[in-house]
Design a protein that fits this description.
Number of helices: 3
CATH topology of one domain: Histone, subunit A
Distance between the termini: 56 Å
Largest sheet: 2 strands, antiparallel
CATH architecture of one domain: Orthogonal Bundle
Shape: elongated
CATH class of one domain: Mainly Alpha
Low-confidence stretches: none
Radius of gyration: 29 Å
Order of helices and strands: HHHEE
Strand content: under 5%
Structural class: mainly alpha
Mean pLDDT: 86
């Protein structure tokens, strides 16, 4: 890896301006240094990985564990509403929490 800086103080100042973040000169220099190190580390990994290494989002393959859908006995509407504190037109009635505009 070369010693050329990828992220300069000018780049950080520009990004801070776009983000509407005010940075001191010391913060600008620190962020430039930190971000440059991060991008340098990413470049090193990219060099090692090469084109033959498949990109992954997770080091171990993941799969969803699901059960098959099976028709079973379900509660009737009457059974589901039996212990409801309040109901209206065959549905649970709850206190509005979003306000009138919803």
């Amino acid at each position: 890896m070369s010693n050329d800086k990828i992220i300069t103080a000018e780049t950080v100042t520009h990004l801070a301006g776009l983000s509407r973040i005010t940075l001191t000169d010391a913060e600008t220099e620190q962020f430039a240094s930190d971000l440059d190190k991060i991008l340098g580390a990413i470049a090193k990994v990219s060099e090692v990985a090469g084109e033959t290494v498949v990109a992954t989002s997770h080091p171990v393959a993941l799969s969803n564990v699901t059960r098959p859908d099976e028709v079973r006995d379900v509660l009737t509407q009457e059974q589901a509403l039996k212990n409801a504190p309040e109901q209206h037109d065959g549905k649970f009635q709850v206190t509005a929490i979003l306000g009138e505009e919803q």
